[in-house]
Amino acid sequence: MRRKTYRKIPLLKPVNLFLLPVLLFFSCLYPIRNNEQIENDPMFLYLPATDYTREKVDSVKSPWEAKTHRGKAILAPDKNNLGILFVRFSLIDDAEEEFLNSQKLLSNNPIPALNLLRLYYLVDDISEAKKFLETFLKQSPPIERKKFENLLIEAQRDEELVIYRDVLSTIPGQEVYAWSGLAEYFFSKQEWSKSYYYLEKILQQSPFHKNARGLMLKMAHILEKWDDVLVFGLSLSGTGERIPELEYYIAHAYCEKRRYSESLDWLNKAPESEKESLVFLELWKLSLLSKNPKADVSPLLPYFRKLKSKGLQFTEEEFFPTLTPEGKETMDRIRYGR
């Protein structure tokens, strides 16, 4: 990754050749794109070092002073920290070289590799990041890969984690694990087509993958694709692999398809703890009254009262209009158009 860190203003007039070195040294410098973000980024990680301590790095105040430290670090931790010094002044190529050398000397320590990935990410050189990770992951044992991944997760470096998992998916035996992480990430960002792409890849390789079917079910529910909800919901139920609110998802799909008896059957199968939610009770009430406008809604009352005890603001009369004579009369008028 060789790039011009700075570009100098071209000299438009002839100058004395004896003064040229001085003028070049003191000419205005334009930093690389996003340099301010790069120079102030808090995600670069220091290592305990003998020479280039954090205090020494912080003591350097100019890019010209920083350049005088090129090639001065000997030990791997010093090289790592010197790389951070170069980052602070947008000396990107120098930083890359120090991080690479540190990582080679400390192959069992994830910090230099994390810093190198961060550098590539900040300068938007994703292809270089992937090239480095391909080599790094192939050379690293599984425990070191996991350590690297956990540090990205803990630091909430989500977009770098996407790059990491994309490369991890090229390693035999790691495909499904990597695709699962990518699918969950894009699901959380509501990028449905990307999440679907990875979920489909998982299910092609592992048709009964529980988490993939579960995410497919949730996505179909959000997108109101009721046939797909039933396909994945009934599949999970059929293999005895329950996810939270499974019965609610299936019941909602049946209700939307006006199959109210099936909807009620699935609502009754739900665990007691999951019946204590407003959306569940709304669906239960809708399914009951859609099947029979005079249906008895009293079985819902204990769950509603538990919600009231937890701070729900609705009154029973507001939520269950058919419990009062006036409410029943109103419902009859609506039903018969009077």
TrEMBL record:
Statement: the UniProt record of this protein carries the keyword Transmembrane: yes
Transmembrane segments: 12-32
Record InterPro entries: TPR-like_helical_dom_sf, TPR_rpt
Keywords in alphabetical order: Membrane, Transmembrane, Transmembrane helix
PROSITE patterns per UniProt: PROKAR_LIPOPROTEIN
Keyword tRNA-binding part of the UniProt annotation: no
SMART domains listed in its UniProt record: TPR (SM00028)
Protein's recorded name: Tetratricopeptide repeat protein
Species: Leptospira andrefontaineae
